[in-house]
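User: Just a sanity check before I run the rest of the batch. Below are the structure tokens for the first item. I only need the designed sequence back.
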């Protein structure tokens, strides 16, 4: 049996200390240990972006990291994006712009979009497309996803955000 390592990670503003096997992926830790099932696994091979979270505010694909590498760091998942019971603007924008169909890519898309907008609050359409190129969507054709990100950048998303209980599926 593999030896375990104790890690302490802040996830969605809550500190967790756990013993984990060195080979446990961060996405597995989030989903299986912490129950953060809004972070999805689409490929497990760094291709699809469904597992995107923020590590110290920067987007990472959580299937590409071991949980032990998050020791001492701050992780934000889709479930930590809403504030005060309200959908975050990007979550609201995806809803308003019909930027999802099956929704499988959506948590990762939103987390990557949040990172993109943090770096560049007013991206061009091409910059949005470039910023999301590591996140795959098999349903939407991307047009409405780009429109959703643009609506947040342009400030045209409704400020009357809905309840956060749908945050995990946006
Ligand atoms: S599950 Fe991580 S990139 Fe697809
Ligand atoms: S909405 Fe189905 S994969 Fe994007």
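Assistant: Here's the designed sequence for the first item:
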């Amino acid at each position: 049996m593999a030896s375990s390592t104790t890690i302490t990670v802040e996830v969605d503003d809550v500190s967790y200390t756990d013993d984990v096997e060195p080979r446990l992926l961060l996405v597995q830790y989030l989903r299986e240990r912490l129950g953060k099932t809004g972070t999805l696994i689409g490929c497990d091979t760094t291709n699809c972006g469904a597992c995107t979270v923020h590590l110290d505010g920067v987007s990472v694909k959580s299937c590409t990291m071991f949980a032990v590498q998050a020791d001492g760091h701050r992780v934000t998942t889709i479930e930590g994006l809403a504030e005060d019971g309200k959908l975050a603007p990007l979550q609201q924008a995806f809803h308003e712009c019909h930027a999802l169909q099956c929704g499988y890519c959506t948590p990762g898309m939103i987390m990557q979009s949040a990172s993109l907008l943090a770096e560049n609050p007013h991206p061009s359409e091409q910059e949005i497309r470039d910023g999301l190129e590591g996140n795959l969507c098999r349903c939407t054709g991307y047009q409405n996803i780009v429109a959703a990100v643009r609506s947040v950048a342009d400030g045209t998303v409704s400020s009357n955000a809905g309840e956060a209980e749908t945050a995990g599926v946006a």
